[in-house]
Every structure is written in C-alpha cells, then in structure tokens.
Write a structure and sequence with these properties.
The chain is about 40% helix and about 15% strand. With about 325 residues, the chain is α/β, with parallel strands linked by helices. Strand 10 (about 290-295) and strand 11 form a beta hairpin. The longest helix has 21 residues, at about 145-165. The structure holds adenosine-5'-diphosphate. Adenosine-5'-diphosphate (ADP) binds near residues 14, 16, 112 and 116.
Length: about 325
C-alpha cells in the first residue's frame, strides 16, 4: 500500500491506565499529522468506539501532555467487546468513520479486543502499555519504569521509618498475575525478601519469617519484605511475622498509587518511539501488527503471533535479591 493511501486513523487507550500513555498518544498524533494523516481520538477505550465518543486531534491537543500520568483520552473496561453485537458495532463505526487503522494503546486484554476486531476487517495496530510488564510479546511495556520508581520511592520512605523504630515493614506492590514490579521493587529498594505470583507455591510465609529471624540474628535491625498483590494476604503476613517473631510489623499497601504519577524519562522515550513506529507501520501498509521492544530494538510483530508468545520472569533476579540481602 502506498503511503498516500492512508488518510485517517483512530487512537484509543484501553484497560488499565499506565504512565506514558499520553506520550504515546502525542507521538501517534504528531507522527500522523506530520505525514498529513488525520487523527481521531477515541475516548474511554473501546466504549468510545462503540458509542461514537470521538474527537479530531490537532497538534495542540497533545501539547503539555507528555509529563502527565493517566491518559487524556481516558480509559475503561468495555464488556460489550465480549459480545458479537458489541464487536460488530465497533467494526461498523470504524467503517462509518472511514478509518484506515486503529491504534490501540493497552495491555493484553486490549490486544485480545484487537484480535476480535481484526476478524471484522478493522486494521489494528497495538502499542503495549501496562505497568505490570506482563505482555509476552515485548520485553518492555509503557508504564513499568514509572511504577517501579514510585514503588522504590515508597520503599525508601518506609525504610526510614522502619529503621528508626527497628520494625519490619511488609509492602504490597501491584501485580495480580505477574511479579515483575515486585521483584524489581525488591531489588532496587533493597528488600530482604519478595513474594510474587510465579513462585507463590515455593515462597511461603514460613520461609520469609525464618529469613527475618536469621537476618536479625546476624545484626539486621529492620526488615523490608515486598509482596505482589497477586500473592495476597499481606496484612496476615505482617500479623504472623509480629506474632511469631515479636518484631513490630506494619503492612503498607501501595495499590493504585503505583498507577499514577508523571512518567519517567524511560517511559516517555519508549512511548514516543512506539507511537512513532505504530504510525510508520500503518503508513507502510502493515496490517494487524503490534509494536514491541525486544533485544534492544523496536520491532513489529503479527498480532496473532504476538498473542501466542511466551515470556518468563528471570529467576536470577530473585536469586540475587537473596544474595544481596545478607
Ligand atoms: P488490559 O488491556 O490492561 O489488559 P483488560 O484486560 O481489562 O485490560 O482489557 C481491556 C478491554 O479489552 C476489555 O474491557 C475489553 O473491552 C477488551 N477485551 C479484553 N479481552 C477481550 C476479548 N477476549 N475479546 C474482545 N475484547 C476483549
């Protein structure tokens, strides 16, 4: 397909918000405008497509947004996308709007939505964005670095107070099904131990408590334990530690704190480059692709292939956390 065939594209953010989504929207809008392609901003994820909540995007609409967390297009979960009716409607509106492609900025769920739309003739191009890093097709997802930095900041502060009081601090970070945020936070926050979903079976509270006792016996005066949201039982773990060891223990749940905040330089860079590559792909006639960052390079993958790929948390990080915790 020649470059000038592309006249108009749509862009939306879907699923969980992630810091850096705005930088990606900005890159999509401005790369498209640079190439004389019109851009329609679709609000509230797939809901906005189904309900026609749209807005033509001009360059000034993405001024001063790079530094903002969240998404200026807003995001949402859209149950209608799970129905034939909803999907048909979304595809029909894409056609009524005369879009040549739809850029979806979101996580795995949003990409599954793209698969269903692709079957209905919608040309979908995905940009991976989730703080959890749990997308198999790419080594980086927009929002992860900011979420980890926010977690690290909180751990630094909790370390100050738990050190002053010689307490144990149990900190729950985000990550329902994946431990990437947890192991990164544990490493960069200097935690002694970390519990994460992939190792739920083998890292139990008894082992964590045993570790705390060993560390106290060699002179540690405070303890920092990180738990991923998906492991659960954070309050109970804190109580068990206090009951069994006699060490004053506090649980802190960071929750959605980790979703917000101004994106880091890393997130702004990846989001800008991925947004640019998404539009370049459309201009070159690519169809149903996702942008990925692998082996230090940006690449385009077939949507179908991307959804069957596998990725695993590198267990070495956990081993090193334990070595460095002595
Ligand atoms: P994320 O994109 O962050 O993983 P979700 O899993 O909540 O977030 O997915 C976002 C949206 O993508 C859902 O609300 C739904 O509209 C759409 N979606 C998810 N899975 C499917 C699917 N199997 N078929 C169609 N649409 C889907």
């Amino acid at each position: 397909m020649a470059e000038n065939k592309i006249k108009k594209i749509g862009v939306l953010t879907s699923g969980g918000d992630a810091p850096g989504m705005n930088a990606a929207i900005r890159a999509v809008v401005r790369t498209a405008l640079f190439h004389d392609v019109d851009v329609i901003g679709i609000r509230k994820g797939y809901n906005g497509l189904i309900n026609g909540e749209i807005k033509e995007m001009h360059s000034k609409d993405v001024s001063n947004v790079m530094n903002l967390g969240g998404t200026i297009l807003h995001t949402a979960r859209c149950p209608e996308m799970m129905t034939e009716e909803g999907l048909d409607k979304a595809a029909a509106i894409y056609k009524i709007l005369s879009l040549d492609a739809l850029v979806v900025i979101g996580g795995d769920g949003s990409f599954r939505g793209m698969q269903s739309l692709a079957e209905r003739g919608v040309n979908c191009i995905g940009i991976p964005a989730t703080i959890d890093l749990d997308m198999n097709s790419t080594e980086y997802t927009i929002g992860f670095d900011t979420a980890v930095n926010t977690g690290m900041d909180a751990l630094n502060k909790l370390r100050d107070t738990s050190s002053s009081h010689e307490r144990c601090s149990v900190v729950e970070v985000m990550g329902r099904d994946a431990g990437y945020i947890a192991v990164w936070c544990a490493m960069v926050g200097g935690a002694e131990d970390v519990m994460f979903p992939e190792e739920k079976e083998i890292i139990d509270s008894k082992k964590v408590i045993q570790q705390i006792l060993e560390n106290r016996s060699i002179g540690k005066r405070h303890n920092l334990i990180v738990v991923a949201e998906g492991v659960g039982g954070t309050q109970k773990l804190a109580q068990d530690i206090q009951n069994i060891t006699g060490i004053q223990t506090r649980a802190t749940i960071l929750g959605h704190l980790q979703r917000g905040g101004s994106p880091t330089a890393v997130d702004r860079m990846h989001a800008s480059m991925m947004g640019y590559h998404a539009v370049k792909a459309i201009l070159s006639g690519e169809e149903n692709k996702v942008v990925a960052f692998n082996g230090g390079k940006y690449e385009l993958l077939d949507l179908e292939k991307a959804m069957t790929m596998e990725k695993h948390l590198d267990h070495e990080i956990y081993d090193v956390i334990k070595i460095l915790a002595i």
